[in-house]
Design a protein that fits this description.
Alpha/beta knot, Trp Operon Repressor, Chain A, five-stranded parallel β-sheet, two-stranded antiparallel ribbon, 8 helices, 9 strands, 19% strand, binds adenine
């Protein structure tokens, strides 16, 4: 998979890709991530990427021209399956959307700033708009990092234990069950007996029940899906 991220703040975005699973997935050649500084696509002396909004009102709007230049250059080099815009009024990111995006070969992620981008960018380039939650961030970069993290870990070969993404919370509309590790007893707090029994079918049964119970207590809305 190849991910091209268009941003005015590439330095804000780089560090998540320089550690742990994301770093290893890049080193293994399972994913390529490229950052494009929108200011490199401006034609004016001050490299401005935003301007006042027509009709008046507070807040600047990101201009269409640098975005067009950057996207068009990328599209001249390869075909893209998705051009995603990070915005608080997009579709709220969930596991299903992450699963869908993880199957794409080439995607572009555009990070918004200020009041957002000129609507004509959204109308003519963007194939999908994503929000990471009902709150407003200063820009789309942190949202893009969240999206990349959740998508990349689903790419086959990225996680060492292939089954571990499948048992994540949300993967089957259930939250994950509780987990324990050694020691089996600490300060008198014991691990549930069943997990020490070695009876794999019973353990699986227990985990399913716990996942269901946790979902019912914390996120009953998931069970309606
Ligand atoms: N940009 C600003 N707020 C955002 C959000 N909640 N999700 C995605 N991009 C954003």
């Amino acid at each position: 998979m190849r991910i091209d991220i268009i941003t005015v703040l590439p330095e804000l975005l780089k560090s998540p890709f320089e550690a742990s699973i994301l770093k290893r997935s890049i080193e293994k050649g399972l994913v390529e991530v490229h950052f494009h500084n929108l200011r490199d696509y401006t034609t004016n002396k001050y490299k401005t990427v935003d301007d006042y909004q027509f009709g008046g009102g507070a807040g600047m709007v990101m201009m269409i021209e640098p975005i067009d230049k950057c996207i068009s250059k990328l599209q001249s080099q390869r075909e893209y399956n998705e051009i995603i815009y990070m915005t608080p009024d997009g579709n709220r990111l969930n596991q299903q959307i992450a699963n869908e995006i993880s199957l794409k070969e080439n995607i572009i992620i555009l990070c918004g700033h200020y009041k957002g981008v000129d609507q004509r960018v959204r109308d003519n380039f963007i194939t999908r708009e994503i929000s990471i939650g009902d709150y407003v961030l200063s820009g789309g970069e942190l949202g893009a990092a969240v999206l990349c993290d959740t998508v990349i870990r689903l790419i086959p070969g990225v996680l060492n234990d292939e089954t571990s993404a499948l048992t994540d919370s949300f993967q089957d509309n259930l939250l994950a069950p509780p987990v324990y590790t050694r020691p089996a007893e600490y300060k008198g707090w014991k691990v549930p007996e069943i997990l020490l029994s070695g009876n794999l079918p019973e353990i699986e049964n227990w985990r399913e029940q716990q996942a269901y119970k946790r979902t019912q207590e914390r996120r009953p809305d998931l069970l309606d899906k």
